[in-house]
Amino acid sequence: MKRFLKIFLLSLTIFVFAFAAGVIFLFIKWYTIDIPSKDEILHYRPPLVTEVYDRNKKLIGEFFLQRRIYVPIEKIPEKLKLAFLAAEDARFYHHKGIDIQGIIRALIADIKAGKFVQGGSTITQQVAKNMFLTPEKTISRKIKEMILAMKIERLLPKDKILELYLNQIYFGFGSYGVEAAAQTYFGKSIDKLTLAECALLAAIPKSPGKYSPLINIKAAYERRNWVLKRMLEEKFITEEEYKKAINEAIILSKERIKRVDLAPYFNEFIRQKLVEKYGEKAVLTGGLKVYTTLDYNLQKKARQALKEGIISIAKREGYIDKDQPENFVYAKVTKITPEGIWVRFKDKNYFISQNDTSSENIGDSLRIWIDKNGKAHIWKYVGLEGGILSVDLNTMGILAMVGGYDYSISKFNRTYQAKRQPGSAFKPIVYTAAIESGYTPFTMVLDAPVLYERPEAENETERYWIPRNYEGDYLGPIPLWKALALSRNTVSVRLADSIGIAKVIEVARRLGITSNLRRDLSLALGSSEVSLWELLRAYTVFAKEGNLCEFRYITKIVDKEGKTIYENKEPLCINVLDKSVAETMLFMLRKVVERGTGRRALALKRPAAGKTGTTNEFRDAWFLGFTPNVATGVYVGFDNHQSIGDREPGARAALPIWVSYMKEAIKNFPFKMFPPYTELIPSEQENR
Q1: 370, β-bridge pairs
Q2: What's the whole-number mean pLDDT along residues 640-664?
């Protein structure tokens, strides 16, 4: 009986232990079902900022979900690491992911204070929570956090865990990680921080909404001083260092670090191209470094030239006050009265009469400008828009891309998204088709009235079409080069009629025009809508001896590990025109500048070629032109297709913008001549 009882008790004990072990196993198994794998932990990287650089390696753009600048542990100052250890987990290098002593210490401190003043979570637990778990405060999540923390400790060295923590945590105001936080709050890198500033950064993550000095300076001081006291208690700093730091004032950067976006139209264009190639997640979290062809200095000049040109037109046409500048500032509405509104800008209040503005809501942001007498006015946006696209003909790299007056007003990129009628800017394509069909620059053509019947017309008034010249006159027989230089409409239509509209379209396709083209004679006058992008690309064929080259915009992409994953050293080119045809067109486009509608371009005092473009009722104004080194296209017009104004052709509305920009652009390149066969025509040939 005794033997049976012993066997029973032993069996029961074994069963109980086995059952308990099974329960514990199932318990752990249940809570580790969705715990990250070894590979996920070893290869984890926090979301990083993708950076975009111009051709001179200047940072011009950032793409991110979380603004984070990753810093390796060896580049993080010791005093900054110690500040966080003192504030969050002083025994970090002594525990295995869970600190029982720390939990007890925090519990005692909370009981003494009568509130939660310390947390029991280790840095490893916080890494586990921030990296892989949800922020919900439940027992289930806490258990998973502890299990995952122990797993992370087995897989990663302590310094790596601390590195992940210091680069992961949130500091408020869109800043993640210590480097981004240092730039946001102090306007400097972490290696320049004082001990007191390190302590302040360590004070913020517990509750950015409470301890950020930008929100509550008093609470920030108290929390910073507590961190310094903890550093002293842990013997991380001396008494002398403590006293000096605790008496240091909190001095914050006056300018908040915001998303870098110095070329917004170009950056958005680049972002779209990157997403197409790599996907949105890789672009917004992958920490790529994207090197581009853009020249930021020329980008600034292009933006300025477009703004000044549009404002000049708006003043000339009476759309805005003659004193309104091209730039504006944002002011906040603080008070509304029957007489007008009060706005605040840079700590000053300004009154704007009700005559100048409609009623606004308090708190709204308004675009204003301040005159020389200190009076504020509403900055008026009339809707006149435009675009500039410029490329380096040597490399085919985009130098500047401005897709509108101001990105904050309209994000629509008019350099490649908009399609508008090019008017006479399309004529070089017609003339190219004519040269291929046997015409020469000295072939005599007739500039005279001509009538075409439209059998398909629905009513009698549209049955006949009589193309007219812009000037309203006719010159009779003239050489082909002069017809293009003076942009004679009747000649372009006669040419298209002579060689056939199919030939014109075929040449347009070869030159890279992909938009839909009308199959009637109005195409010769630019009636079909095209983009500035494709039209400028077509013009570069004349400058590059008949070769059509794709524009380059990204030269190299480097991943977060420093490995080059994409490189574009040379433009992709194909020959689409016989060299002699391209040379002939270059010759005639030079005449446009030397003797024709493009004469304003002579102000460059450099060899130049190009063509103006104007559409019916002055709805669109263009100039596309190039020097031996740079090709640039300019477009101006209203998005709603209304008239720009009375007598605002391309030569008056677009060409001055082109000249203003190109004067700066050509400074980047050595003086260069076009080939000698494109020089001035001898006077005896001119008069044939």
Answers
A1: 376
A2: 96
- Cα separation of 98 and 146, whole Å? 7
Of 254, 271, 300, which Cα lies nearest the Cα of 62? 271
| C-alpha distance from residue 275 to each of 280, 291, 299, 401, 403 (Å) | 5, 16, 23, 19, 20
- In terms of CATH architecture, what is 65-246? Orthogonal Bundle (1.10)
Catalytic residue, from 88, 268, 326, 385: name it.
88
What does the longest C-alpha to C-alpha distance in the chain come to? 137
Q: How many CA atoms lie within 13 A of 282 on its CB side?
A: 16
Domains 65-246 and 329-378 share a fold: no
Smallest Cα–Cα separation from 658: which of 615, 679, 627?
A: 627
Q: Are 656 and 598 within 8 A, CB to CB?
A: no
Strands 50-53 and 289-292: parallel
CA distances 96 to 143, 436, 644, Å, are 15, 80, 72
Mention the CATH class of domain 329-378: mainly beta
Between the alpha carbon of residue 576 and those of residues 510, 512, 514, 675, the distances in Å are 6, 9, 14, 20
Picking from 514, 581, 513, 572, the residue whose alpha carbon sits closest to that of residue 546 is 581
Question: Residues 270, 290: contact at Cβ < 8 Å?
Answer: yes
Give 684's pLDDT tier (boundaries 50, 70, 90): very low
Asked if 88 is an active-site residue, the reply is: yes
- CA–chain centroid gap for 302, Å, is 15
Residue extents of the structural domains in the chain: 65-246, 329-378, 386-686
Q: List residues bridging with 634 in a β-sheet.
A: 388, 623
Note whether 361 and 290 are within 8 A (CB): no
473 exposure class (CB count in 10 Å sphere: 0-12, 13-18, 19+): exposed
pTM for the structure as a whole: 0.84
Q: How far apart are CA 137 and CA 196, in angstroms?
A: 32
Q: Which of 175, 212, 390, 424 is catalytic?
A: 424
Other Cβ atoms less than 10 A from the Cβ of 28: the count is: 12
Q: How far is CA 323 from CA 157, 312, 319, 377, 380, in A?
A: 65, 11, 12, 10, 12
Euclidean distance between CA atoms 590 and 588, whole angstroms: 5
Backbone angles phi, psi at 558, to 5 degrees: -115, 135
Distance CA 489, CA 427 (A): 9
- Second-level CATH architecture of 386-686: 3-Layer(aba) Sandwich (3.40)
Please, which pLDDT band fits residue 98 given cuts at 50, 70 and 90? confident
Q: Is 487 a catalytic residue?
A: no
Q: Which residue has the higher pLDDT, 36 or 526?
A: 526
The residue length of the chain stands at 688
**pLDDT tens per residue, range 7-28:** 666 666 665 565 555 444 444 4
